[in-house]
Amino acid sequence: MKFSITARRRVAGAATGCLLGGVAAATIAGPTATAAPDCSAGGVSNTVSSTLGSARAYLNTHPGANQAVGAAFSQSRPEAAATLRGYFTANPQEYYDLKGILTPIGDTQRQCNVSVLPPELASAYNEFMAG
C-alpha cells in the first residue's frame, strides 16, 4: 500500500477540517441504478459527519492505528508515509476496515456529483482509498 504523509495527515484531519470548516456541497443529483441517495446539502453533510464520526470512533478503539495516524501529524512527509504504510501493511484488516468506513464519502461524491472535501483533503482521501 502506498501512503504519503499528506494522505495520512489529511485523512486523519478530515474530520476536524470538514466539521470545523463546514461542508459546502452543491446539490446536483443525477439518477443512479441504486437507491437514490439524499443529495440535499443536509443529506450530504449528514453522510460526511456520520462517516467521519465513525472513522474517529474506529481510531479511538484501535490504539495502534490511532497512534500511527497521530504520529504522522508530527513527522515529515516521507517519515509519515513510512509510518502509515508500515502500520497498515502490518495490519491490513485495519486498513480495510477504515477504508470501508470512509467509503460513503466517495459514494456520496459520485452519486450526488459533489465535492465534499477541500481539494487537499480530497487528494489525501483518494490516495488512501486507492491503497
How would you explain this protein's 3D organization?
The chain has a single domain (5-21, 48-130), classed as F1FO ATP Synthase. Helix content is 73%, strand content 0%. The chain contains 6 helices and no strands. Helix 1 (5-21) crosses helix 2 (41-61), helix 1 (5-21) packs across helix 6 (119-130) and helix 4 (77-90) crosses helix 5 (92-112). The model is unreliable at 5-9 and 11-33 (pLDDT under 50).
Low-confidence segments, given as residue ranges, are 5-9, 11-33
What class do helices, strands and sheet pairing give? mainly alpha
Distance between the termini: 5 Å
Helix and strand sequence: HHHHHH
Largest sheet: none
CATH class: Mainly Alpha
For the secondary structure, the number of strands is 0
Radius of gyration, whole Å: 15 Å
What's this entry about, in short?
The protein has 131 residues and is mainly α. The protein has helices spanning 5-21, 41-61, 63-73, 77-90, 92-112, 119-130.
SSE layout and pairings?
Blueprint: H1 5-21, H2 41-61, H3 63-73, H4 77-90, H5 92-112, H6 119-130
Helix pairs in contact: 1-2, 1-3, 1-4, 1-6, 2-5, 3-4, 4-5
Features:
single chain; 131 residues; mainly alpha; F1FO ATP Synthase; 6 helices; elongated
